[in-house]
Every structure is written in structure tokens, then in C-alpha cells.
Amino acid sequence: MKYYYGSAASEGQKELIGAIGGSVTFPLNLSVVNVGSIVWIFNSTLVTFQPPKPEKPPMIIVTQSHKEERVSFRNGECSLTLSKLQKSDSGTYRVEVHSTVKRFFTQEYVLRVYEHLSKPKVTMGLENTKNGTCTVNLTCSLEQQGEDVTYSWKSLGKAANESHVGAIFPLSWRLGERNMTFICEATNPVSSNISHPVSSWKLCEGAAEGSGVPTTLLYYLLMFVLCILILGLLLMIQRMRRKVIAEKIKGIEIHQDIPTICSHLEDALYDKITYPSKATPEEDLIHTLYSVVHIPKKVDNPPSPPMTADTPGLFAYENII
Domain residues of the chain, as ranges? Predict the structure, then answer.
């Protein structure tokens, strides 16, 4: 058992690490002999603990009520355990031990709470292809950047023992070399996670001997040519549509301009009268006469003829032409 004399005594600051959702214990190696009370402080008084005595059980008074269900002490121990950790639990904690003989002890702890890391994502940038050599920068990142995160790269191909530290990894690969596979690993004090494998063949598909044009430039050039072709096709279709519409309009105008010729012959009925003759067929064609019989238009309500005293009755009219 340690005794500390004077007005106050303390040890060096201790650092504790916890994960969100986990728990952490603040160690306090003390005997319960002559210990009157233990006060744990986080910004303000967090909890007051009085160890058990032969004549009475331990007493726990939690001042910060929102943490009441997360504070506990192990049987017969003075160490504080904080469970269901949250990011807001990070900070400095202090404990003050008061004894029955007017001696007391203080200790400070720094708690850092970290989150479990998600799978890192790899992006590609600054691609360049020249003389069959592909040079590209790979960047490793997280959706939610946490604290104290470190990145490292490992090769699973040609040089399995090759590694690189840092979020950005410069890769150089030459056409014809063996394929190399890389993974990025993100690590913090409580967890680590790795990315999906990245293949050098996939990254450098556009590398070719003697080609000094970057793959991205070729891609954009191809997209530009494709857009020009599509635009030309659309213009051609639009021009054809305009031509068809113009021809239809022109046909309608011509039809409207044709005058009606010989409208009085609308109801004419042609009858062929052939006179018998012993002439040859050629002569019959010459002597063939044509007569035109005009059929009067139908009149729904013909006017009644005037009736006079001398008029014996209705007359029958015959129109012979």
C-alpha cells in the first residue's frame, strides 16, 4: 500500500484508449484501508465512491445523471469502469482519494475514444503513359476521416515485401511486366481495415509501346469524336424532316391552284351512237357520231307552274336535245 504525505501527491498523467461502443477502466491501485472517499471528476464531479466497510456496503453517488447507467465499480475495487463509450467521452479525468487520516492522492487520465474504421477507398490521379510506361498516383481515403489514422500500401505481386507508408502511392509500371496487385490499409489505435485489391493491369490498360498520349486524353478524344458524329446525325435527320415538310406544303399549294375546267360538263353523260354501215371498221370510226345528253340536276322541291283559268291541268314537259 502506498501512502502520500503532505497536502497532495500525484503520479504522472496516464493515457487511456477506447473504442466507440466499448468500455474502458481507469486503474486505481489502492487498498480500501483508511480510504474515506474517492471522487472522480470529468469537467465537473462525475461520481463519488465510498468503499465498503465491515459495517456498511459501498456507496456510489453519480452526479452526472446521464452517465449513471454507464458507470460501475468492480467488486472490492476502487477502479472506475465507463461503458458504452461515446466520442464525447474523450477528455481529461481526475481522481481524488481522501483518507481518514487526512492524506489524499490525485491522479489524472487522458481518455481518447476512436471509431472503428470503414473500408478505405482508392482513387487514381495524375495518370501518364509514355513509351509503354504507366505512371499513376493512387490515393487512399476514408468517407469519414477519423483522428490519428495512418495509411500504408502493400504489394501482393512482383515484390510481395514491398511497402509504402502514406495516403498517396506513386506507381510506375511498364508494359510487359508481371501484374502487380496493391492494397491500402488504414489504421487507428483501435481498428484497421483494408481496401479492395488494385491491379496494375487495370490501371494501365492504355499503356502501349511508343505511345506518348495519356489514356485519359485518348478517352476524351474518342468521346469528342463520338459527340460530333451524333450531332451530325441529328442535324441530318432534322434537315430531312424539314425537306419532307416543305414538299408536303408545296404539294398542298399546287393542288389548291388547279382551276376547275368545264364545270358545266360535270353531269354530262356521253352516249355512243353507231350507225350500221357496211363500211370497213376504219370507216366506222370516221362515221361514228356522239351525242351529249344533259341530265338536269335533282331539285328537291320544284316550283309549281302558275295556274290560270285556261290551264287545263298539269303539263308534261319533255326536253329533247
Answer: 14-114, 121-203, 214-252, 265-294
